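Workshop exercise sheet. Pairs work together: one partner reads the sequence aloud, the other fills in the structure field after running the prediction. Swap roles for the next sheet.
Pair: D.N. / O.F.
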Amino acid sequence: MPMHGRDEYSPAYIRPPVYIGNRTLDTIMKVWHGACDGLEPPSWESMSLLIWHPWFVHLVVVESRHRMKPGECLAVFPVAALLLGLPMCGFRGSLPVENNARTAALSAMTRVVSMRRRMVLRCLPEDASASGGGRLLVAGVPLASVGRVERVLFAVVSAGDEQDGRSD
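Structure field:
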């Protein structure tokens, strides 16, 4: 039975839009669903042109080079960096998994999204070392692979944020 213009033979990464109830996460999901072309998920290069302020500040792009290694951060934007306890400017490289429970969970989530090839929604654990010690809500969606490197786009918000994505 066709669903939202897609038939039963569509790739696994295309699912009907999911509305989470957080304006930031819902906006990112709408843009991602709109960018899916039916052959593969959108590339980071095409997605980065579609997501504007204020939503892009919540994003993290992580690459999975091997399922047994931590995720490699390709890009992290200011709000996401602050919430995850990462350096604000220009952080790239392996996500710290030894001393940061949130980035360790994000690294593990990268592998899950890469294997499932569909959106995954999770709450990250509380972390006293990161700014804003509360729980985080994270939505991860697959991006187009680059060679054998799989990419995942994450949107990170505080789980205590209001319905519209702003905290008071």
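Discussion prompt: Helices lie at 23-35, 44-50, 78-84, 101-116. What would you look at next?
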